[in-house]
Amino acid sequence: MTSPRGQIDISGVTKRFRIKDRPLLALDQISLSVAPGEFVSIVGPSGCGKSTLLRLLAGLERADSGRLVKDGTEISGPSLDRGLVFQEPRLFPWLTVVQNITLGLQNQRMSRAERRRGVAEHIDLVGLAGFENAYPHQLSGGMAQRAAIARALVNRPEVLLLDEPFGALDALTRARLQGELQRIWAHEGITMLLVTHDVDEAVILGDRVVVMAPRPGRIARGVEVDLPHPRIRADDRLVRLRNDIILGLEADEASTNAQRPAAA
């Protein structure tokens, strides 16, 4: 029997950028392990490096120091075993839903029948049956994001990285898709890492919430969410966890502001 795949190990990762010739420390000595099949939510204030960390895991950026490892192999670039979903669906407007999702299989060695079958399965998985031949402009925002999730999953990656996937949606659509993502995660059994500003979303979806402190980005704490799925947002236990995380974020921000030099 093969062991589960999708283990992520991040050790002492530091990332710097240059902004107008000035160095900016975006991530400072980040260390984190994610078990195969675990759903980890990452929250923190704007500019704390959440999305940068996801881009490093996707292989779209390189760390200045430290290691990012998946299943014992160092991440050195993009790979089909790691899917990525952005805040915007990024669908090609001249292609239908089927054609956009099929693009996710362009580097796979599969027969035409296998491609059709895989795409059809994932259209059903995200609830887009009946919209196979629709173009992006004919879809609602939530439907377009469903198509983007299907495109990321059609390769059957072992890790799915989600960068604020519901951030541009209205509250009702967002809540509906949160429920859908819980269902998809339970069905697929893969590792998921979600970056979000929404603490409610983080505790509803995550097995664990990783809280990042303000710049330079570093992990302030981890919060276990030991509650069964699917979760109900009105659950008192979730509400208490949410409030504790928000209070911690506020305390981190106040501490950071107190350490900054006063303006001249």
Automatic annotation (TrEMBL):
<dbReference type="InterPro" id="IPR003593">
    <property type="entry name" value="AAA+_ATPase"/>
</dbReference>
<dbReference type="GO" id="GO:0016887">
    <property type="term" value="F:ATP hydrolysis activity"/>
</dbReference>
<dbReference type="Pfam" id="PF00005">
    <property type="entry name" value="ABC_tran"/>
</dbReference>
<protein>
    <submittedName>
        <fullName>Sulfonate transport system ATP-binding protein</fullName>
    </submittedName>
</protein>
<dbReference type="InterPro" id="IPR050166">
    <property type="entry name" value="ABC_transporter_ATP-bind"/>
</dbReference>
<keyword id="KW-0067">ATP-binding</keyword>
<keyword id="KW-0547">Nucleotide-binding</keyword>
<dbReference type="InterPro" id="IPR017871">
    <property type="entry name" value="ABC_transporter-like_CS"/>
</dbReference>
<dbReference type="InterPro" id="IPR027417">
    <property type="entry name" value="P-loop_NTPase"/>
</dbReference>
<dbReference type="GO" id="GO:0005524">
    <property type="term" value="F:ATP binding"/>
</dbReference>
<dbReference type="InterPro" id="IPR003439">
    <property type="entry name" value="ABC_transporter-like_ATP-bd"/>
</dbReference>
<feature type="domain" description="ABC transporter">
    <location>
        <begin position="8"/>
        <end position="241"/>
    </location>
</feature>
<comment type="similarity">
    <text>Belongs to the ABC transporter superfamily.</text>
</comment>
<keyword id="KW-0813">Transport</keyword>
